[in-house]
Amino acid sequence: MTLARQHPIQVVAHRGASEEAPEHTLAAYRKAIEDGADALECDVRLTADGHLVCVHDRRVNRTSNGRGAVSALELADLAALDFGSWKAREALRSRDEEPDWEFRPEDREQTSVLTLERLLELVADAGRRVELAVETKHPTRWAGQVEERLLHLLKRFGLDAPPDPAESPVRVMSFSARSLHRVRTAAPTLPTVYLTQFVSPRLRDGRLPAGVGIAGPSIRIVRSHPAYVERLKRAGHGVHVWTVNEPADVELCVGLGVDAIITNRPRAVLRQLGRR
Ligand code: G3P
Ligand code: CA
What we know:
This protein is α/β, with parallel strands linked by helices. It has helices at 26-35, 75-79, 85-94, 116-124, 139-142, 145-156, 177-186, 219-224, 226-234, 247-256, 266-272; strands at residues 10-14, 39-46, 52-54, 131-136, 170-174, 192-196, 214-217, 238-241, 260-263. The protein has one domain: TIM Barrel (Alpha-Beta Barrel), CATH 3.20.20. The protein has eleven helices and nine strands. Bound molecules: SN-glycerol-3-phosphate and calcium ion. InterPro entries: GP_PDE_dom (IPR030395), PLC-like_Pdiesterase_TIM-brl (IPR017946). This is Glycerophosphodiester phosphodiesterase.
């Protein structure tokens, strides 16, 4: 079904085009860009030697052929791992149609660990505007180092101080209000997104932590409390919903007028929105 809307909802590729390609790899982000995603979502963690890498879990066990916590491994250790084969095996097991993404073991770069720096280069070379939503993971453990490194890197790419926050190609997301506070203190014009999995009584009236402009509720919250989205919008906040993969949920988000849909299936969502 094609859904008409006055202002296009932004389609954000969650961990890249992660339904088809292995999450957080160059392959997944290249595919998302090819598919037409407006923005890319990525989680960042610090390695033992201080590099920001795009990995969701605390440990690398699920998404690579290695073991151990990202924070205990150096970038060189991570670079020796394969972050793609698990997905190729999963695709072989579960697919009833030809996959759109093909695992090529000879192309190591597409499935090795991805640094945030490399992802920023990819976005800079995309040939069109592609936004980036960076999520800080486990920022408490590092007491500000994740944010510091992130802002340092964004500065190198000229992205840390957008003159108009509404036009910023980068935003920082977190479940941690403290992490977002650190970002706002050091980079006051960089937009921040407060992610929530549950609506706590404190947030029910649509208020967000001070200075945060965008709410990031889970699709579960949106399904069970659609009025919460109305409240957020009335309070003047942007609403970015994750992780929206089912057509009925896309329709719900469109109906509620959310600003961004964060999805593992950017191509399918763009098609549903009539944009492909
Ligand atoms: O985009 C927000 C979403 O990614 C938060 O959940 O666990 O997938 O990082 P998670
Ligand atoms: Ca995330």
